[in-house]
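re: that chain from earlier
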Amino acid sequence: MLIIEKVIILKSINLFSEIPEDDLLAVASEVEVIKYEKDTKIINQGDLGTSMYIVIYGKVDVDFNGKSIKILEEKSIFGELALLDPEPRSATITTLEETLVFKIEGDVIYNLIYQHINVAIGIIKILCQRVRDNNEN
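^ sequence. v structure.
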């Protein structure tokens, strides 16, 4: 995938929508593009992690202690908690169909946060929504 394609996709994600293209070029050059087949575990609950993921296409299941709690689709972000707090992963993420993701390491996001407060605000909003979702369940 070309870097400009990665920038266009990143720009379409709410978390990155207000970031100037020049800054997204640096992020895009660090993004790892990974394609997973159906029924592949991307993250195992309890493993240590320092990266977050964005679903470009496909669907993933979020499993907490053996129970499916949410299905994430295109433009969904997961693994963001590990960026802020490098503790064991809180859930297992498994593909439900062929899925393409962007994997972004924590140091890339931290650099972006230092330059653009909107990224930090966006991550906080995602985490708040996760808390609300958990409270409903």
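Helices lie at 3-11, 21-30, 80-84, 106-115, 117-136.
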